[in-house]
TrEMBL record, chain A:
It is found in: Endoplasmic reticulum membrane. PROSITE patterns: ER_LUMEN_RECEPTOR_1, ER_LUMEN_RECEPTOR_2. GO terms for molecular function: ER retention sequence binding. The keyword Ribosomal protein does not apply. One of its GO terms (biological process) is protein transport. The gene is LOC112459182. Keywords: Endoplasmic reticulum, ER-Golgi transport, Membrane, Protein transport, Receptor, Transmembrane, Transmembrane helix, Transport. This is ER lumen protein-retaining receptor.
């Protein structure tokens, strides 16, 4: 464990808490893409199957359970409890266009052609693009509430911090994993445009509004 | 071994 990874994990946890609190306090999931949340739930359930086979640390097990549970809880809140507030008219991204290519790519490019390894690889590929329906929703409505922006910033920072973690591990532990690194790079790049708007607008107290 | 090293990440 190094500081970049710890900060990355905490940032990820913060993003999830912000989102759940926003939905719970406002009793509404307006402006949030249910499609992205479904993708994240698929990402965590397929990646953390090793919970049943490998024990790494109490921290690792605890975080994995939290990520699976909170992603399922978010989907439940959006599609069941606060279904009436869900913005389904704008949330029209076709997630099969992300799921299927991620799965095919995982079958083609992986470290080992075994079920658990392919599912792990699939989850890494899918995570890198899972935010696209959310970014699509924001671009369709042309704006995002501040709280949604904070959520996106925390979520984007998480993989960005992991990039520094991988650079650190490359030098300190002589370890690297190209699948995770390339996917993490793609994931972080997808947030760049949003990061720019967040820093130039949201941090100055303005609402995130896209140019017409 | 990649299995023990990378799988410790989240």
């Amino acid at each position: 464990m190094n500081i970049f990874r710890l900060l990355g994990d905490l940032s990820h946890l913060l993003a999830i808490i912000i989102l759940l609190l926003k939905i719970w306090k406002t009793r509404s999931c307006a402006g949030i893409s249910g499609k992205s949340q479904i993708l994240f739930a698929i990402v965590y359930t397929t990646r953390y199957l090793d919970l049943f086979t490998t024990f790494i640390s109490a921290y690792n097990t605890f975080m994995k359970i939290i990520f699976i549970a909170t992603s399922l809880a978010t989907v439940f809140l959006m599609y069941v409890k606060f279904k009436a507030t869900y913005d389904h008219n704008h949330d029209t991204f076709r997630i099969e266009f992300l799921i299927l290519p991620a799965f095919v790519l995982a079958l083609l490019i992986n470290h080992e052609l075994s079920p658990v390894e392919v599912l792990w690889t699939f989850s890494i590929y899918l995570e890198s693009v899972a935010i696209l329906p959310q970014l699509f929703l924001v671009s369709k409505t042309g704006e995002a509430e501040s709280i949604t922006s904070h959520y996106l910033f925390a979520l984007g920072s998480y993989r960005g911090l992991y990039l520094f973690n991988w650079i650190y591990r490359y030098y300190a532990e002589d370890h690297y994993d190209l699948i995770a690194i390339v996917a993490g790079l793609v994931q972080t790049v997808l947030y760049c445009d949003f990061f720019y708007l967040y820093i130039t607008k949201v941090l100055k107290g303005k609402k995130l509004q896209l140019p017409a | 071994n990649r299995y023990t090293i990378v799988k410790d990440e989240l």
